[in-house]
């Protein structure tokens, strides 16, 4: 039996080829997959981490960036506790598409979802988006910001651990009983699986 | 003595002399033996030497034999070479290509380097080189002829020759060309058939029974055609070209299959107006999400129903075809390629082949269209169901619940039939969103209207209503309509929780039946999405709770409070006579129970059992909290306490039997208060308080207990204070 206290859903979105799958595999399997093919539909991975001595289960949904999978991927926004929006620092178009992604998040995700902007591939020397430009964008849209390299394992662990810590803090601060005791014990073992209304009540 | 010894010695001497003589006679014999032994050793050495020599000889013999064999093989090769070279020209001349190819095949199977070696070893066999040259020439000649003849055969549709040359290709080392040319020929056949089928499809009149699924039919014909081709030719390819070659064949067939799929898809999109519909749907959802009333022409979900059905069918056909190709080729590779590295390379090739195929592209496109339309269908149909909501008399719930879950089940079922797990998950996610946001919001907003409480008791209202309706005098007034709407909404929320649970169970079962070989990861995906759906019940329970609080505020609290408050107008410092008089009349609790009965009874008929139980719970809470407050505002003597104790007990009895779950626990505090007020004297409390068997599980704190005791006018404050609690 899993014995985790918290379960959070983390969804990665962003243009095709920005490195979402590589980030996830770096974090969950500790490797940089050579010749990673484009994701079809949506992939699903789980990693349990420990935060302040508590087991936290992260359910990571790695969505396909290609347009034709949009109707599949959009359906996962709503139940997300955290959304990671990824662009490629060496590819201007992936940055230019961010407003479109935000619109999509606005439309489908819970308004209280934790949002993180990630500029990936900082190991590359053909950078097109300076760090401060990404930072500004994130600040303007009320998002966390982090630059990573899935290839060199830079900031990847930090990205997901930060999310786990933040979500746990949120979950704890609203750890007041939602219903009276008769229903509360349904949720007591794990705090809210896919329960988006809990998201709605965050903060 | 000495003499005796002496004589003994003398007799012995003769004996000893004899022995010595005998011994000296043996000496020459010993010498001989010694010599013999020495010669034996020499002999043995000789033998061992020669046996070593012999085994060396044997080894030499072996090598020699090998050489002879090799030589024989070379000779036989050379003879064959000679024969081949002699025969091949004749065979070609006679157009006996099988023979020619067999000879070339024999030639090709001879180790060319050895042949050359032989030729240089024996200069005199100059003819060897000539033979080789002849054969090489013949081989390339034959290759050209066969390729050409095959082409001719294809042109003239000479099936016999096509098959004939197809079998010759591998003999003359043209495996790749053979498969390519042959499959290209098969492609032309595929194309012809597919074109015909598509034309038939396009000519199908709209009234035809198959018209609504004609593109699914056409795709089916295409894929069945390819599958048949693969099945028919796989044994041929395996026999003449060897196992493990199927992937090369399918690689070529797939290109034509892709072309035809693209054609069918484009006709499908054109005829079924896919692009226009997609634009319209996207437009509509954009408008409605920005919550402005659109003047857009809406698509009736019913009009999409058939199309959605066709799309899922098409998708499932593509899925089936891809599965077929995968399993066919994988089996062929497993049998044909033993080298694991090589095999996995080929498996990768297969993955790429499928991934990059138009068939996969079309599958994804189709799934995209399908999901978008299914989502629209679900949302619009549910909106319709909500708008057409009707409540039948005598039913707890209204039609929207049944209808909504019917629609959701239909959509999920349809997604299952598409064969795409990602599709199923997306539809479940969408259903979850529709239920949790749209649907629950509708229920909530209905409950938000509140439960109007008129000046009439509900019983009276009902009676008036019943008789008036029966006499045809009165339409149910606004209040009644609003009340019914409220009650129905509350019941709808409750029954939805059962629907959701049943839906989740059923869906899991159906998916497991439809996809018995689900991968572990896919199962995880599915379970996560389903758990999202089942957690909709939590939101529904929130809605119910919200409704009950509405009910409490408008219908329960304002009525229950005055009933309880009347307790204060009764004197609880009674004499025996007063007590008898009180008991003889209608007591407080009798009135209260009657009132509660009149409050609850109408609800019992109109609420679902579970909602009714919850309502009784709410009423009980209200009664108890108020009662406790009022008790603290009253003073008692012993008899007054006795009355209270009796009354609390009968109240608890009444309310507890009103529900299916026990409310006794809720009464614990009030019961204990009554017990305290019913004590004979202060010290009697020690029967109930403390660490012994008769002690109670107290819900009152010591200071609360003292406060309660202080309500008894006959209990002395000092006695109470002195209690050790
Ligand atoms: N240099 C460098 N290359 C990276 C990094 N992360 C990913 N890549 C490369 O970028 C390409 C795309 O990576 P994926 O992880 O497949 O991209 P994705 O965002 O999952 O793409 P979709 O699944 O199509 O949406 C691959 O060739 C990776 O090798 C990185 O940190 N540094
Ligand atoms: Mg990916």
Question: Which tags fit this structure?
Answer:
heterodimer, A: 203 residues, alpha/beta, Rossmann fold, 6-stranded mixed β-sheet, 8 helices, disordered C terminus, B: 725 residues, mainly alpha, Tetracycline Repressor, domain 2, Methane Monooxygenase Hydroxylase, Chain G, domain 1, 25 helices, flat, binds guanosine-5'-triphosphate, binds magnesium ion, GTP-binding (chain A)
Task: Please give the order of strands in the largest beta sheet of chain A.
Answer: 2-3-1-4-5-6
Shape-level CATH architecture of chain A = 3-Layer(aba) Sandwich
Discrete helix count of chain B = 25
- Give the helix level of chain A as a range of percent: 25-40%
Most extensive interface between two protein chains, with residue counts: A-B, 31 and 32 residues
**Oligomeric state of the chains in view:** heterodimer
CATH hierarchy class name of chain A? Alpha Beta
Give a structural overview:
The complex is a heterodimer of chains A (203) and B (725). By secondary structure, chain A is α/β, with parallel strands linked by helices. Chain A has one domain (6-179): P-loop containing nucleotide triphosphate hydrolases (Rossmann fold). Chain A has 8 helices and 6 strands, in the order E-H-E-E-H-E-H-H-E-H-E-H-H-H. Chain A has helices spanning 20-29, 70-73, 92-96, 98-108, 131-140, 156-173, 181-187, 196-200; strands spanning 6-13, 42-51, 54-63, 82-88, 114-120, 144-147. Chain A has a 6-stranded mixed β-sheet, sandwiched between helices. The longest helix of chain A has 18 residues, at 156-173. Chain A is globular. Chain B is mainly alpha-helical. Among the domains of chain B are: 13-173, no CATH class; 388-554, Tetracycline Repressor, domain 2 (Orthogonal Bundle); 570-721, Up-down Bundle (Methane Monooxygenase Hydroxylase, Chain G, domain 1). Chain B has 25 helices and no strands. The structure holds guanosine-5'-triphosphate (GTP) and magnesium ion (MG). Residues 20-21, 39, 62 of chain A line the site of magnesium ion. Chain B: Belongs to the COG4 family. Chain B: Required for normal Golgi function.
């Amino acid at each position: 039996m899993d014995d985790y206290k918290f379960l959070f859903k983390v969804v990665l979105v962003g243009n095709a080829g920005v490195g979402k799958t590589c980030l996830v595999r770096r974090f969950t399997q500790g490797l940089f997959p050579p010749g990673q093919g484009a994701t079809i539909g949506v992939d699903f991975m789980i990693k349990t981490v420990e935060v302040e001595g508590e087991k936290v289960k992260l359910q990571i949904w790695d969505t396909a960036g290609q347009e034709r999978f949009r109707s599949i991927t959009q359906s996962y926004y709503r139940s997300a506790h955290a959304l990671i929006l990824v662009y490629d620092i060496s590819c201007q178009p992936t940055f230019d598409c961010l407003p479109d992604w935000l619109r999509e998040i606005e439309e489908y995700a819970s308004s209280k979802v934790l949002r993180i902007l990630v500029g990936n591939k900082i190991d590359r020397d053909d950078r097109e988006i300076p760090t401060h430009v990404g930072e500004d964008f994130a600040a303007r849209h009320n998002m966390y910001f982090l630059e990573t390299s899935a290839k060199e394992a830079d900031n990847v662990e930090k990205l997901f651990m930060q999310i786990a810590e933040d979500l746990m803090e949120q979950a704890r601060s609203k750890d007041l009983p939602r219903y009276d005791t008769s229903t509360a014990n349904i949720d007591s073992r794990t705090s809210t699986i896919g329960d988006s209304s809990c998201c709605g009540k965050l903060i | 003595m000495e003499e005796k010894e002496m004589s003994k010695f003398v007799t012995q001497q003769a004996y000893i002399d004899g022995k010595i003589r005998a011994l000296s006679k043996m000496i020459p014999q010993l010498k001989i033996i010694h010599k013999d032994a020495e010669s034996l050793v020499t002999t043995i050495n000789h033998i061992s030497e020669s046996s070593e020599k012999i085994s060396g000889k044997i080894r030499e013999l072996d090598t020699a034999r090998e050489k002879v064999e090799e030589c024989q093989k070379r000779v036989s090769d050379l003879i064959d070479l000679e024969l081949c070279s002699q025969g091949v020209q004749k065979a070609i001349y006679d157009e006996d290509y099988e023979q020619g190819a067999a000879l070339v095949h024999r030639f090709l199977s001879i180790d060319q380097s050895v042949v050359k070696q032989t030729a240089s070893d024996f200069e005199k066999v100059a003819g060897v080189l000539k033979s080789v040259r002849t054969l090489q020439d013949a081989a390339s000649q034959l290759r050209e002829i066969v390729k050409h003849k095959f082409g001719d055969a294809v042109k003239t549709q000479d099936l016999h020759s096509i098959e004939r040359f197809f079998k010759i290709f591998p003999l003359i080392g043209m495996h790749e060309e053979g498969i390519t040319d042959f499959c290209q020929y098969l492609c032309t056949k595929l194309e012809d058939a597919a074109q015909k089928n598509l034309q038939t499809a396009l000519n199908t009149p709209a009234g035809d029974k198959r018209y609504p699924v004609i593109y699914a039919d056409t795709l089916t014909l295409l894929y069945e055609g390819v599958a048949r081709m693969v099945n028919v030719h796989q044994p041929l390819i395996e026999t003449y070209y060897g196992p493990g070659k199927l992937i090369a064949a399918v690689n070529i067939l797939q290109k034509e299959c892709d072309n035809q799929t693209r054609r069918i898809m484009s006709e499908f999109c054109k005829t079924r107006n896919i692009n226009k519909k997609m634009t319209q749907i996207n437009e509509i959802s954009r408008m409605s999400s920005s919550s402005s009333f659109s003047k857009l022409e809406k698509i009736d979900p019913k009009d999409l129903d058939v199309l959605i059905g066709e799309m899922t069918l098409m998708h499932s056909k593509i899925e089936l075809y891809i599965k077929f190709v995968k399993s066919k080729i994988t089996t062929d590779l497993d049998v044909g390629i033993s080298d694991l590295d090589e095999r996995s390379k080929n498996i990768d090739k297969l993955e790429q082949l499928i991934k990059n195929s138009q068939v996969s592209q079309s599958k994804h496109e189709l799934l995209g269209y399908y999901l978008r339309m299914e989502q629209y269908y679900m949302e619009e149909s549910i909106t319709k169901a909500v708008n057409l909501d009707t409540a039948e008399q005598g039913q707890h719930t209204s039609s929207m619940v049944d209808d909504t879950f019917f629609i959701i089940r239909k959509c999920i079922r349809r997604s299952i039939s598409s064969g795409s797990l990602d599709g199923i998950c997306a539809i479940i996610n969408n259903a979850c969103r529709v239920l949790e946001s749209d649907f629950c919001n509708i229920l909530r907003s209905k409950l938000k209207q509140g439960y109007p409480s008129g000046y009439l008791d509900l019983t009276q209202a009902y009676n008036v209503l019943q008789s008036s309706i029966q006499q045809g005098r009165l339409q149910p007034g606004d209040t009644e309509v609003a009340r019914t709407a409220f009650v129905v909404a509350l019941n709808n929320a409750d029954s939805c929780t059962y629907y959701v649970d049943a839906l989740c169970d059923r869906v899991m079962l159906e998916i497991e039946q439809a996809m018995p070989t689900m991968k572990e990861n896919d199962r995880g995906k599915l379970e996560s999405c389903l758990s999202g759906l089942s957690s909709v019940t939590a939101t529904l329970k929130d809605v119910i709770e919200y409704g009950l609080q509405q009910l409490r505020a408008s219908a329960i609290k304002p009525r229950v409070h005055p009933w309880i408050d009347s307790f204060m107008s009764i004197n609880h410092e009674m004499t025996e006579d007063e007590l008898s008089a009180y008991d003889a009349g209608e007591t407080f609790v009798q009135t209260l129970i009657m009132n509660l009965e009149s409050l609850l009874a109408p609800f019992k008929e109109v609420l679902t059992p579970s909602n009714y139980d919850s309502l009784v719970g709410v009423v009980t809470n209200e009664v108890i909290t108020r009662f406790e407050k009022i008790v603290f505002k009253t003073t008692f003597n012993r008899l007054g306490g006795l009355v209270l104790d009796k009354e609390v007990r009968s109240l608890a009895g009444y309310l507890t039997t009103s529900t299916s779950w026990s409310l006794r626990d809720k009464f614990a505090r009030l019961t204990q208060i009554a017990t305290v007020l019913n004590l004979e004297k202060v010290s009697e409390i020690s029967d109930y308080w403390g660490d012994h068997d008769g002690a109670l599980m107290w819900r009152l704190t010591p200071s609360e207990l003292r406060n309660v005791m202080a309500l008894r006018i006959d209990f002395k404050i000092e006695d109470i204070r002195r209690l050790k609690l």
